Amino acid sequence: MKLNGKIAVITGGGAGMGRETAILFAKEGAKVVIGDWNEKTLKETVDLIRSTGGEVTGLKGNVAVQAEAESLVDTAIQTYGRVDILVNNAGVMDNNQGAGEVSNEMWERVMGVNVNGPLYLSRRAIPNMVENGGGVIVNIASVAGMGGGAAGVAYTASKHALIGMTRNTAWRYVHEGIRCNAIAAGAVETSIAASIDPTKMDPKGTERAQAYYGLIPAQLKPIDIANLVLFLVSDDARYINGAIIPADGGWLAA
Ligand SMILES: NC(=O)c1ccc[n+]([C@@H]2O[C@H](COP(=O)([O-])OP(=O)(O)OC[C@H]3O[C@@H](n4cnc5c(N)ncnc54)[C@H](O)[C@@H]3O)[C@@H](O)[C@H]2O)c1
Q1: Mean pLDDT over all residues of the chain?
Q2: Which residue ranges have their beta carbon within 6 Å of ligand 1?
Q3: Which ligand 1 atom sits closest to the C-alpha of 220?
């Protein structure tokens, strides 16, 4: 088992790639704390893991709310003694509005979940990791963090910011045993479309995004991302730090 005895915090564990990552981590021997703002799907993941004998604690909360984000890390420390691994996975899409149209409400929602959330969790986890001799952070970014075609301005800017946070964290804590990497995920079959109201999509922005979606070479499954997260947090990747790894079937190569 690759993660025997490790303590991991995963956000957005109720669905999609967060759920698959939590299940895989538990199978590999990790004790997992998962958060989600959807209580029903969170409980489903907890039940799935417990049914196979895995060790898991589920906590309902919104990562954009500082106290709720921090309580995930605090729960790991109180329940299992420390945090070794943090996966900042929870995220929401925008409705393809450009900078000429985006509302403050959409901007703040997307930046709150996709950027502030990872910052709140990292800031709480890093001192504990340093105290215990190190740790690993994986941020789930997107091809939208590497280029401008895949979404609206809020989602695009949020994933670029997450990539910047990844590189800075990798560099800043390199001598304190912390590695931090990001995955630039391509098109993955998950329930993320439920994070937006389909009737409120921006028509012109969607037309531009569709031009980019036309280049998608492959639809990935959540387990494809989970397998890469597992590799990145394992000792097999001990020299991989500050990397932004595309998992997109070659989309970014276009
Ligand atoms: N699906 C894709 O094609 C794709 C592509 C690139 C990047 N991503 C990124 O992957 C990550 C995971 O998304 P997914 O596709 O698995 O989506 P998903 O919607 O299937 O799963 C995300 C989970 O996070 C939870 N969540 C969302 N906002 C939250 C919040 N504020 N607080 C707590 N929980 C919250 C949701 O309830 C859900 O259970 C996101 O960061 C997303 O931006 C997805």
Answers
A1: 98
A2: 11-12, 14-18, 35-38, 41, 62-64, 89-92, 113, 140, 142, 185, 187-188, 190-192, 195
A3: 3
